[in-house]
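Q: Here's a chain of 90 amino acids. Please give me its 3D structure as C-alpha cells.
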Amino acid sequence: PPMQQAPCECTSPALHYHISKYARHSYDITAWLSELTGDPAVKDFIPHLKHHLLRRIHSINYAGDEQEFSDNDKSQIVLANNQLFEHSVL
C-alpha cells in the first residue's frame, strides 16, 4: 500500500538530500518478499542487500565492478527483527 510521507525536519537547501531520523513505517522482510514472489526485482534480495550494506560500511564506491564478499562477511550483517524501515526523504 502507498505510504504517507512523514514531514522532514528543516534542512539546508545546499544539502543534496535529507533523510528523516525517524521511521514511521516498517516491513517484515519475509512477508514483504512473499508478497512480491515472482517479481524479478527482488530475486536474491537478501544477499544483494547484505552486499550493498557491506560496500557502504567499508566505504567502497561502485565503479562498475562488484567487490566480492565472503559468506562469512555476509553472515556478519544481521537484519534486526527481520525488519526494513521506510524513512522520509527530501
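Q: Can you summarize the key feature?
A: The longest helix spans residues 45-57.
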